[in-house]
Amino acid sequence: MSPKNDAPEHSPQARLAREAIEAWVREGKKISSASQPDLQKLLSEKSAAFVSIKKKGSLRGCIGTFQPTRDSLAEEIIGNAISAASRDPRFPPLREEELEDVDIGVDVLGEPEPIPDAGYLDPRRFGVIVRSGNRLGLLLPDLEGVDTVDQQLEIARRKAGIASHEPVQLLRFTVERYH
After folding, report:
1. pLDDT tens digits, 120-136
2. On the CB side of 94, how many CA atoms lie within 13 Å of its CA?
3. 145-159 pLDDT per residue, tens
């Protein structure tokens, strides 16, 4: 499952993620958000974010947070970009020779809101978080191959290791998607 993304990176968010990935893959260096003067908005706000890497249309890495964990959105993007390129357990670390073949997307998450039941979900519009005890699964909205609420919930439960018969708390969120 990967966010729909067929456009080259034009947004400041996606350009920052690409710069972070390229510096990490080529030099093993983490870029500094302070060296990004044109990103004042990203430096002044805090938000959760996911960074997705696609190679020839297929997911190649995706890591993110559902709550802000760093001092700014810029730092959140940089950290998650590096993790998507090097620490997604589903994939080997991105190699330098792959860089020209990847597209980068950034999803900035809105604040998760509790909902009483699945009737408040729409897989095109809302991402979902399922929680049972200390297990948590998250699925971004508007993903290829996820067309129904049931599919969305089943995938999120599976990611968290929550069986279909176990009760869950549901939260939904919106995203701003940048390419």
Report:
1. 999 999 999 999 999 99
2. 34
3. 999 999 999 999 999
